[in-house]
Amino acid sequence: MFTAALAVHLFSMGLPVQRTDEGSIFPGDGSYAVNSEHTHDPCIVELDGRTFCFSTGNGGGMKSTKDFKTWDIHGPIMKTPPDWLKTMIPEHRSIWAPDGVRVGKKVRIYYCASRYFGGNDSAIGFQENEHFDANKPNEGWTDRGMVIESSKAKGNHYNCIDPDVQIDQTGRHWMFFGSYYSGIYVVELDPETGKIKPGKEPVSVAWNKGSKENALEGAAGCFHDGYYYLWVSYGLAAQGVRSTYQVMVGRSKTPDGPFLDANSTPMTEGGHVNILKTSPPMFSPGHNEVMHHSDGRWMMSYHFYDGRKFWTGDKWGMPRLQVREFLWSPDGWPLPGLPVEFTNQVKLKDHNSPAGKWLHQADFTNVEVITLTPDGVIESGKRRGKWEVKGDSLLMKWPKIDDEKDFWIDQLQLAYKGNYYVGRNQSGLVIRGIRSELK
Question: Which of 15, 101, 254, 304 has the largest CB neighbor count within 10 A?
Fold first, then answer.
């Protein structure tokens, strides 16, 4: 029988292993590393040559990896809840959505807890390690107390969960937080104390106007090429394959917004650019974090519900950790690349031309087999289109049904040695393709 232990042994020997993306409608979407299971709300951060993951759980879960093939489990980030949290929420069971950030030589982990699921009797606190040792990651932590709280009794509009701390280009610290009905907020922190800067109040930066419940949560941020990007998860989590998470993003010239989409609609008015959706067996990917790895790759971590595995109770779809590379479009918007767990399992050959058979997918829906002929024709069943390469871009032109002289255009970029393309069509929907031999 093929087991996780055997997989680790084969990886260490450099031998091929069973592909973990079996059953994926788009190759790679269901791939995972050893010890990825039962991971919710993951944050990844690179510390001293290893990538650490902190996630929701009893005391918060901590694991690390050097190769994204196997995660080493280190256990909880705190053995028992701090006294202030036990006093505030006696019935509290677990730490939610921890977020790790390096501050000079220190490492801080912000975390949250709530009295009950779906309410706003919640609080965010943090713990700090002044001399973090990647070889002894459980040692040296000191709890620094509460950062902010919310409650219905106090009339707070926001909900103090899902913290994400970002350090801007000038060294100022910002904490994004918030969940579900109350939207996403940002507030400035004091870099020295790690707590809210005196005189600063939370500001609303994102709402899901397409949802009656304002269903969004799990903020994450990054800076790239002059813009601050705010990532959020629309939809519902924690329901296994019945969950509805999808990852959205907006951007701003300043770290506290306003964050806009590609049409300049503010995220507070529902503006968003879609990055990642369900693509079975990867159901409801979300609550992501963003990391610019020291090797130059941009990566996003998130959990997804594995449609091949039972979870708990009446829920099908075990939550797993996945780390996916992402690329940048010419106009500066993130695009989904391939999971690192998948590229660790396949050998990518160099291709000088896009010609060949591809598995093509629009907006994370059904996959179709298409052929790009050497003479620039797209063959898709009875449909015929045209393709051409312009600089670093692959352009696909699909004739419109009502006017074959006019075209829908997919503007794509080739990646992974010519084995993958990704971009958006004129409606802003994500278009992906991968060579069929990689299935």
Answer: 304
Name which of 70, 80, 39 is nearest 306 in CA terms: 39
pLDDT of residue 278: 97
* Tens-place pLDDT, residues 202-234: 999 999 988 877 889 999 999 999 999 999 999
DSSP bridge pairs for 298: 292
Could you count the other beta carbons within 10 Å of the beta carbon of residue 143? 17
Asked, as a colleague might, if the bond just before 258 is cis with ω within 30 of 0, I would say: yes
| Of 214, 209, 288, residue with least CA distance to 248 | 288
Determine the pLDDT at residue 401: 80
- Per-residue pLDDT reduced to its tens digit, 9-44: 333 334 344 578 888 999 999 999 999 999 999 999
Question: What's the whole-model pTM score?
Answer: 0.93
Q: For domain 33-343, which architecture applies?
A: 5 Propeller (2.115)
Catalytic annotation, residues? 41, 217
| pLDDT digit string, tens, across residues 251-284 | 999 999 999 999 999 999 999 999 999 999 999 9
Which tokens in the block code for residue 35? 């010890």
Residue the block writes with tokens 């991971």: 39
CA dist., res. 289 & res. 232, Å (int): 10
> Are the C-beta atoms of residues 219 and 178 closer than 8 Å to each other?
yes
In the chain, where the domains are located: 33-343, 356-438
| Element housing 327 (H / E) | strand 315-328
> Considering only the top CATH level, what class is 356-438?
mainly beta
Sheet containing strand 61-65, strands side by side: 43-47, 50-55, 61-65, 72-76
Q: How far is 141 from 161, CA to CA, in rounded Å?
A: 21
Q: Which residue has the tokens 């968003």?
A: 272
Distance of CA 329 to the CA centre of its chain: 17
DSSP 91-150: T---BEEEEEEEETTEEEEEEEEESSTTS--EEEEEEEETT--TTSTTSSEEEEEEEEEE
Looking at residue 17, its pLDDT comes to 43
